[in-house]
Amino acid sequence: MKKTILLIDDESFLLKVLLVRLKHWGYDALGAENGPKGLELMRKNRPDLVILDKEMPGMNGEEVIRIIRGDPELKTIPIIMISADVENIDASAKACGIVHYLTKPFEPEDLLDMIQLNVAPAENENYI
């Protein structure tokens, strides 16, 4: 059975590119352009992993994480935080209880490595 990954990022181009890449790697991929839509998708689909942007308008990534961690149905879902905020992402990740994060820009292979640390490898062998 394919693993489902939810990507939440307000950058529409990056969202589209990563959704295509995730599908190419053999994962079911869902995308949301903001925190509230991402939370709605999480509750409906219960993904195996969430990739979440730190900086988004309205509800930022840290706020989304607090809601996830406070929800008994969602709190165990692993989260990878991504951000262009190189200087503050480490402190933010630790404050939110996130241990995996990537700084933008990042190599797709680095994201795949992090995904595979958190969920089983995809059935599809088209990794790169």
Molecular structure report:
This protein has 128 residues and is α/β, with parallel strands linked by helices. 41% of the residues lie in helices and 19% in strands. Strands 2-1-3-4-5 form a five-stranded parallel β-sheet, with helices on both faces. Helix 2 packs parallel to helix 3. The two termini are 21 Å apart. The model has no long low-confidence stretch (mean pLDDT 88).
Provide a quick synopsis of the model.
The protein is an alpha/beta fold. The protein has helices at 12-24, 35-45, 61-70, 89-96, 108-118, and strands at residues 4-8, 28-32, 49-53, 79-83, 100-103.
Topology:
Blueprint (H helix, E strand, L loop, with lengths): L3 E5 L3 H13 L3 E5 L2 H11 L3 E5 L7 H10 L8 E5 L5 H8 L3 E4 L4 H11 L10
Parallel strand pairs: 1-2, 1-3, 3-4, 4-5
Helix pairs in contact: 2-3
Q: What's the total count of β strands?
A: 5
Can you give the mean pLDDT? Answer: 88
Portion in strands: 15-25%
Strand order of the largest sheet: 2-1-3-4-5
Structural class: alpha/beta
How can the largest sheet be summarized?
5 strands, parallel
Portion of residues within helices: 40-55%
Low-confidence residue ranges: none
Rounded to the nearest angstrom, the radius of gyration is 13 Å
Pick out its properties.
41% helix; 128 residues; globular; five-stranded parallel β-sheet; alpha/beta
